[in-house]
Each structure stands twice: as structure tokens, then as C-alpha cells.
Amino acid sequence: MQWHHLLLNTGDISAGRVTAIRDDFTALFRSAGGPRTMALFRKDAHEGGVDLYFTPECSVHARRLIEECGATPCAPPALAGLELLVGHNEITYYLTT
Predict the structure, then answer these.
(1) Tens digits of per-residue pLDDT, 24-34?
(2) Alpha helices, DSSP H, located in the chain
(3) Fewest Cβ atoms nearer than 10 Å: which of 11, 24, 46, 61?
(4) Residue 67: which domain range?
(5) Which of 51, 49, 54, 62 is nearest to 95 (CA)?
(6) Residues 6 or more apart from 29 whose CB is under 8 A from it?
(7) Which CB contacts under 8 angstroms, 24+ apart, belong to 35-39?
């Protein structure tokens, strides 16, 4: 399993796409029972965009969402600057061990 990344531009943000993806992800997270290593992160991108990152566990419980929104496989992001949108607060501990 691997991380997935989605870059949203300012138009996507204005259209509420971050909120829609977060809400859909939250529903999937809850229905999966809140797995400890399932999380959605965001990071400010250049030119006003937003990077969204899905942890590897998301491939098990949120594959459909990952595919529908067009996220692509990626290397694990640097933890600096990441903001947890959905998941357990201790997720960074699990990601660094």
C-alpha cells in the first residue's frame, strides 16, 4: 500500500472541493471504525492551491474516493507543514515509527 496525493487549485478550493472530499472521507473513516493509520492530510501548495494526502490505509477503506477524486500514488510527504483533516491526532507517531 502507498500514499496518494491530490493537488487542488484555487478554483477547486472555491468550488468547495476540499470540504466535499473531507466530508466524504469522514464518512468512510467512521464506517471503517476509525482505523488508527487511516488519515487525510492537507498542505498549502504554491500559488494558493492545496495538496491532499491519503495515508496507505486509505487504499483499503477509501479506494473508491481516491479513484473518483483522481489522487495518484506518491512517496510519503514530509511531515513538516502537514495539517490533519481527518484521523486520530496520534497518527504522526504511527507514521514515524
Answers:
(1) 999 999 999 99
(2) 10-14, 17-31, 58-61, 63-69, 91-96
(3) 46
(4) 3-96
(5) 54
(6) 35, 38, 40, 61, 62, 86, 87
(7) 35/60, 35/61, 36/88, 36/90, 36/91, 36/94, 37/91, 37/94, 37/95, 38/62, 38/87, 39/84, 39/85, 39/86, 39/87, 39/88, 39/91
Joined together, the cell numbers standing for residue 85 give: 483533516
- The string of pLDDT tens digits covering residues 61-93 is 999 999 999 999 999 998 888 999 999 988 877
- The pTM for the full model equals 0.93
Q: Which three three-digit cell numbers place residue 86? A: 481527518
Name 85's Cβ contacts closer than 8 Å, sequence gap at least 6: 22, 25, 39, 40, 41, 42, 52
